Amino acid sequence: MDGELVPWEQAKVHVSVNALHYGSAVFEGCRGYYHNNEIYLFRLREHLKRLVDSARIIMLNNPYTVDQLQQAVVRTVRENGYNSNIYVRPVIYAGENIMSLNASELPVHAFIIVFQFDKFFTKQGLRVCVSSWRRLPDTSMPPRAKSSANYLNSILASTEARKAGYDEAILLDQSGFVSEGAGENIFLVKDGVINTPSTSSAILEGITRDAVITLATDMGYKVVERPITRTELYTADELFFTGTAVEILPILEVDGRTVGDGSAGPVTKQLTEKYFRVVRGQEPNYRRWLTPVYGRA
User: Fold this and answer.
1) Residue 297 CB neighbours (<10 A)
2) Across the chain, where does the E strand assignment appear?
3) Could you tell me the residue range of the domain that residue 161 belongs to?
4) Are residues 83 and 65 in the same domain?
5) Residue 72 forms part of a structural domain
6) Mind listing the pLDDT tens digit for each residue in 245-273?
7) Count of structural domains within the chain
8) What is the mean pLDDT of residues 7-36?
9) Which residues are identified as catalytic?
10) 140 and 87 fall within a common domain
11) Is residue 202, in this structure, part of any structural domain at all?
12) 48-88 pLDDT per residue, tens
């Protein structure tokens, strides 16, 4: 917390913090994968760059650099001594000021949480529905910023889906095109081509999404970023979510319609296998994406 290691039970903020009252905070999620006595933080620097950019977008006076945050994350993980898969949650937030709506006058703090983490969804594939809630438009709230306030949109969609008996929601943008899941980016495979919504569909530019696009291209697949209509979801050969929490996870059903043959498709399987080799340091060509914590690698 603000540069000091603090025991979990003492890591507290005051009830007057602006972030609690108005959502004036930005955050990231980064995974660490344990393999051969080492923890590899996956694309840590890219996550922290997006964190700093998010703070800039919502006009927080963030005093922390990417280098400072990276050192703090590595130190926090190392001091906890984990020998398991972990999740890292850095947060930059507006501090003690109950009444102000002026971001430029708010005090700014940061904390980093680390905890053991394996699977977000225990299922091997998901049943999803298209939400009645639309994705926040860039003209109202900036989806490029990974801000706490934006995620109320996700909570509404995900809660609605689960109450209806589904595992997760897909949101459309304000024009009716597919945007993303409640907390995930989405990919559609049709006739061997991998498609994904572009930034014009109000998506968060996911770091796992970017990794999957790179891996798929390197593996010889054609990847197209374009507007995707709702009905294309119903006739896709394969659908899958990507994200730090979900990693790569197939979608097996949308709005009661089976996707493909109802199991993970060959493209999804190939990408998943490649991805899990990459994050564990087993693919030398992608070591640039990994930050080893203990220096054993």
Assistant:
1) 15
2) 25-27, 30-35, 38-42, 86-94, 108-116, 126-134, 168-172, 178-181, 185-190, 193-196, 222-225, 238-243, 247-254, 257-258, 290-292
3) 126-279
4) yes
5) yes
6) 999 999 999 999 999 999 999 999 999 99
7) 2
8) 97
9) 146
10) no
11) yes
12) 999 999 999 999 999 999 999 999 999 999 999 999 999 99
